[in-house]
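Much of our argument rests on the idea that a fold can be written as discrete symbols. This step matters because it turns folding into a mapping between discrete strings. The record that follows shows the chain in one-letter code together with its fold in token form.
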Amino acid sequence: MDAQRWRRARELFDELIELPREQWQEQLLRRCGGDAGLEHEVRELLAADAGATTGAGLPAQAPAVLADIAAQEEAAEYARLQGQRVGPFRLLRPLGRGGMGAVWLAERADGAFRQQVAVKLIRSGWDAEAVMARFQAERQILAGLQHPHIAHLIDGGVTADGKPWLALEYVDGGDIASYCDRERLGLDRRLALFTTVCAAVAHAHARLVVHRDLKPSNILVSADGTVKLLDFGIAKLIDPASLQVSGSRVFTPEYAAPEQLRGEVATISVDIYALGLLLYELLTGRRPYRAANSTPAAYERAILDHEPTRPSQAVVEGETGSDAQALAQARDLSPRRLRQQLRGDLDAIVLKALRKDPAQRYATVGELLADIAAYQAQRPVAARRGNWRYRARRFVARHALATGLAVAAVLALCLGLGLALWQAEQARQQRDLAVRESARAQRTADFLADLFTQADPNVNQGKEPGAGQLLDAGADQLLNGELDEDPHAKAGLLLVLAQARRALGGGSSGDGLIAEALRQAERSGDALLQLETRELHGAMLGSESRLPEALALLQQVHAELPADDPRFLRLRVRTGIDLSNVASGLARDEDTERYLREAYALQQQLPDDAQTWRADAVVPLAFRLIRTDRAAEAETMLRQALAAEQAKPRPHLLRQARISEVLGMSLQNRPDLSEALEWSRRALELKAQVYGKRPHGGLTTSINNYGVMLMRADRVEEALPQLRRALELRREQLSPEHGWIAQSLYNYGRAQDRAGDLAGARASLEEAKALLIATDTDKGRDETAIRRELGSIARRQQRWDAARAELDLALERFRALPRPDAAETARTLAEREMLDAQSGSARRDCAQAREAQTLAASASRINAAERAFLQIVLAGCLADTGAQAQARALFAANAAAVRATPAYPLRQQYLAWVEQRIR
């Protein structure tokens, strides 16, 4: 039966085998169209399959049984052959199977000299006459091939029972694809190995031999990188007259050329096609065809009917990010770089070798090698059939230096003709610019000199004004018409004054400086100055809790910033940080981290002297990581940033303070808080050096954070005055509705709770909750944490209904967050479980306590001591439901750890309650 009829019979078999047996006859009559021969072949296949899958009532186990039988037969044959003599060689162990032959590692046993070889033996159970003919042909072919990269024939003969054998050079190595991946060879080294294979195949073709079964497993690479081509078992000699060989269907389907599948006569083109498949796999790690299923028939249909995927597309198509990364890393490249290198010439070379029509492939292996050599030398490749632009690009790449010199000479000649006129015009423009800049500098100097004259005690009758008074005086002068004749200088000074006022904690978006700066910047026509002014305005709106306005303005600035102009780089970093702050306030978690990651990446491009606190994404990004249970990543990032800052000739005190402060926060969940406290204290000292005794928002933040750290370390008596002072300062410095006041109330209330002042704690937390509800500045996130604390206080005061209302709402809101907070949810579940236990609610299981434990296991902000307390909560539930023994075991294992923690006073009541229940 020819190839086309065989393919059709296989397709019908695959379709009909899925149908009930009683439908086979009807479908055969309908689908075979009166072709009795085809109908007979399909019926025979179906009957053979039915016979193989019946008997003993175990059709589903038949394939496994047959495989086991085959394995047993092979094992028996190997056991029989091991140690036997074959000619002058002794068989040691099987290496595998190739075609119809078993391959053995053997050693010379005649004592002449030591030698290891690969002995190929006929496999039992096949047509001996046909196989012997093939072995004889292979021996004849190998005898005529003498090439350093073809495993050469050493000896041959016939065994005592009449089976032929061949002794071949033994290659101790792995297949070429695995070797390339294991050694992580780049594309150049893979191409070098491939050209070695091509040279060996070309040697065979020159001796009128077609291999017909080229595939990675037939090409081995030894440990020292030597390539050897194996297995000419189905090779054929070419008829010198027709350059063709017979079309026998003996091949590996996945590596067969279309004409082999069609049963047509084979030429050297089948080897060229196979070389294309090999090159495709070496470059991409993939096969060029995507079959609908994994059956041989499906893959054959794909080879015949589908066009191969371009290599540059195959390395990313259908891959996950991690798969594409691993594939590229095996080639010592990034996924993007791998795709770039494959696109173009290598795509064209591979696809030309894989053409369906043999006449459209490379005519010889030499032509394929010539195109690869052209690619490596950056010359045009024939496969591209490039136009003049493509050829010009390759010429320039190949002769970059000569082309560059020639172009430079031509340009120099052309430009030289107009150089004198250009220089004259430039000189005139530079002169005018120098005059303008000199006048602007003089006006700026005059303004500053007049401003600082006011600091002279002789002028102010012995009074020494502070920095804030000087800034106010300068602002008054600029707002009242000073420097109106130079909008660029005036806008720059206004912007500096606005930034300085904000740094001192006294500036606001409504003091007139920003509006006037923007008006003057627009008059000047300086795009950078305009965007800087709008960015500062947006940052001020954000710090005033006017978040929607700030977001709209900053997004406009972000969209208008040029991505390719280095002058705008620092402003792009600052705008990203501002946007992240606003997005965080609006509880837009994904946007918060996205803006921070972008800003942090851009910051790495800034020179060291430009990475000040105003362009520092490290601190807010690290804080974000800490809040989302990634404290270890934050710690690493912060330590690196701090070391880099301290290594500068003139370290920036404020930047060191900010990094130190958040570094302390990254360590706050460790059992020993001494290092965290030290970094927090150091941050406070550094900020005191920067701001002195002046009240400033940055200093207030450090006072608040140091107080929180003291409270976590169970130094509540020291924490209370710090947190009270921070609250008082924020009430003085900020508007009454500002979200930071609510934050201070929350922290102070928690400290009051730790100190045993439940009434005071409740009052502070209720005020914080009311402020957040009124302003909605955080979309309910911090308000939810406050509700949980209020629920805990109500539980301990036995106000069961109030506790239940607060905790149920808190739990609902924590679960609804866009990015669930495992730590806060676990704490709320534990409070809800304790409420149910102490209030006597009817409960059927301990689901809340168990879920709290599960969430806590993945939350880095819950330390070991808090996890121990969650075990106590579960013990209380188990005791309440009758599982006394398990409850006692949990209590005994965790009670000591809970008693040793700083938070024990808050948990003492519940611990005593559980202990009483398990007695």
The longest strand covers residues 89-98. The radius of gyration is 41 Å. Residues 631 and 666 are 5 Å apart (CA to CA). The longest helix spans residues 400-453.
